[in-house]
Amino acid sequence: MPLDTSARFSDPDAAYRLIVEAHRGLSDDESRKLDAALILTLANQIGDLAILREALALSRAAIAPSKDAATD
After folding, report:
1. What percentage of the chain reaches a pLDDT higher than 70?
2. Gap between the Cα atoms of 46 and 68, Å rounded
């Protein structure tokens, strides 16, 4: 099954606010740890290495497109 990148939240703004609020009051280091814990929790929920691999590649390309193009 390919990665589904369509909007899946009925209220995407509320989902975004939840994520932002979870980071409120955290240091940069704590915020990175929260992100890592959330990623691992959601990766486990997905439970599919092919989907996880595709999601990671898509996410990495979104933040570092020139680095990924240089390594291909």
Report:
1. 92
2. 24
Distance between CA 43 and CA 59 in Å, rounded? 13
Supply the pLDDT for residue 68: 57
Per-residue pLDDT at 71: 54
Give the pLDDT confidence score for residue 72 in this predicted structure.
52
For residues 64 and 25, give the distance between their C-alpha atoms in angstroms, rounded to a whole number. 27
Instruction: Fill in the amino acid letter for 4.
Output: D
CA dist list (Å): 32 to 12, 22, 51, 56: 22, 12, 23, 16
State pLDDT tens for residues 40-55.
Answer: 999 999 999 999 999 9
Q: Cα–Cα distances in Å, from 70 out to 3, 4, 30, 62, 64?
A: 24, 26, 31, 14, 10
Give the start-to-end residue ranges of the domains of the chain.
27-71
